[in-house]
Amino acid sequence: MGLQCGIVGLPNVGKSTLFNCLSNARAQAANFPFCTIEPNLGVITVPDDRLNTLASIDKPTRIVPTTIEIVDIAGLVKGASKGEGLGNKFLANIRETDAIIHVLRCFDNDNITHVDGSINPLRDKEIIDMELQLKDLETVESRISKVEKMAKTGSDKSAKKIYDILSQYRQTLLEGKSARVVQLDKEDRKLVGDLMLLTDKPVLYVCNVDEASAVSGNKYVDIVRDAIKDENAEMLIIAAATEADITELDTYEERQMFLQEIGLQESGVVRLIKSAYKLLDLQTYFTTGVQETRAWTFHRGTKAPQAAGIIHSDFERGFIRAEVIKYNDYTTLGSEAACRESGKIGVEGKEYVVQDGDIMHFRFNV
Ligand SMILES: Nc1ncnc2c1ncn2[C@@H]1O[C@H](COP(=O)(O)OP(=O)(O)OP(=O)(O)O)[C@@H](O)[C@H]1O
Ligand SMILES: [Mg+2]
């Protein structure tokens, strides 16, 4: 499905450092603003113990985890919406993503330059929010000028409806709020879906802290937590520089040991992926056999044919039915044959809503 999360924030707050914890690609992270210009793209595999358990049953030739793409975008500054800094190009990079990971500098360090001279994550957040909102306002206003005439003459019902929604967006953005606070039903959302507003994307805040604050945060984190409590957003505390060092260690055991030394059970990568899954309302289904055990990401509520379409469009086009085994049945009974004998294979049609952990076998004909 190629879901993509974009990392945004002011220059030099640790975006590339976070990216380096997440992906195997190595982005240049350095102590100067605008170190990143071209976006770095990384693919992170989604860790899932269930995939390994299934693989231990089927012993396939290939084990394929599902993935999320992460883009490390250039730092934004005040005036970006008007072309300052790296301006518009970089806003275009954000537009292409499904969700935003907003990195906030929550560590003191006199040796690391802050573009605004002091550590203040709240101010930083507002600068970024404002630039994104201004860009959205521009998008909304240009659309309004296109539909205004038609809406006012009253002949076109949907033009009127679109105009009303756009006005609602404009009002919200003018109040200094993000588009995501506007509540629209599914139908209305479709009418303006092609706007791709930047501040309508789900957001995950990452407080980038020093090593000592990795577990319980610090005063900056408290400020951020308080500021976003009314937003429908997730927040994570990650000591990005420390975790980037940890990813350099060779073995999984070494990395786990280091994490435990600083008081963490799970790495920032794992926590971030879990949050991204929650934020984007994602779930996983599996396919498994002697050839391959594989995880697939889908949006909660997806029906069987569309879930099949994630594997291949032919599966959706020629969908006949799905055979579904629950994860617990599969692992308890130990094989597809045993599940069949015990009547644990559900035969489901087009209306079946796929559930997290389902083991799917699609029957299709094209
Ligand atoms: N938690 C942290 N504690 C201390 N130093 C950190 C932390 N996170 C990042 N740094 C350091 O801050 C500097 C800037 O980091 P990085 O290059 O990742 O920033 P960036 O946001 O990608 O900047 P740019 O927008 O310029 O690309 C680097 O020297 C990095 O090692
Ligand atoms: Mg960078």
UniProtKB/TrEMBL annotation:
PROSITE patterns with a match to the protein in the record: G_OBG (PS51710), TGS (PS51880)
Name the CDD domains on file.
TGS_YchF_OLA1, YchF
**Which InterPro entries does the entry mention?**
ATPase_YchF/OLA1, Beta-grasp_dom_sf, G_OBG, GTP-bd, P-loop_NTPase, TGS, TGS-like, TGS-like_dom_sf
Chain ranges of the TGS domain: 281-364
Q: What are the required cofactors?
A: Mg(2+)
**A Gene Ontology molecular function term of the record:** GTP binding
Instruction: List the GO terms this entry assigns under cellular component, sorted alphabetically.
Output: cytoplasm
Name the family.
Belongs to the TRAFAC class OBG-HflX-like GTPase superfamily. OBG GTPase family. YchF/OLA1 subfamily.
NCBIfam families given in the database record: redox-regulated ATPase YchF
In terms of HAMAP family, this protein maps to: YchF_OLA1_ATPase
Q: What is this protein called?
A: Ribosome-binding ATPase YchF
